[in-house]
Amino acid sequence: MLKKNWYLFTPLAIVGLPAFLLGFYILAYGYPVNEAVEAVSHFLKSSTRYSMKYSADHFARIRPGMDGKQVFDYLGVPFERRNNDAEWLYSLPQGSAKAYHERKIIFERDAKNVPHVKEVVKSFHAPK
Question: Which runs of E-coded beta strand occur in 69-99?
Fold first, then answer.
């Protein structure tokens, strides 16, 4: 029966693959549902390159309040430093891709001019 009616599985594949990818982005990347939907809609159109020492495990350890040296020890040199060293970018789009997995750390300086993590950005960046 299955040999004759293999086409009955087509609707399952059409619904199942996007649902699997949605679950993957939610569980593996920790994205909220709206960003996971955005990532699924840009599947195969997105590409991300990460800085040399970057690892997802080390990035997950970064917390608000850590100083710049601790971040540097975990993640190494960022690709870019923007806004007078207030933003460190650890991911950028690969090649001509417009959508990518954004990894950025935002700092604020204390009274002694030491940078401390204000915010950790882990999101899917897609063109509007």
Answer: 80-82, 87-89, 91-93
What's the CA gap between 45 and 47, in Å, rounded?
A: 7
Tokens of 47: 């590409």
Q: What is the pTM of this model?
A: 0.83
- For tokens 């007078």, name the residue: 84
Neighbours of 55 (CB within 10 A): 14
Which pair of tokens denotes residue 24? 């993957």
Whether the Cβ atoms of residue 90 and residue 79 lie closer than 8 Å to each other: yes
pLDDT in tens, 58-90: 999 999 999 999 999 999 999 999 998 899 999
The DSSP output letter for 6 is G
Q: What is the CA radius of gyration of the chain?
A: 19
Partners of 1 in beta bridges: none
Q: Rounded CA gap, 21 and 23, in Å?
A: 5
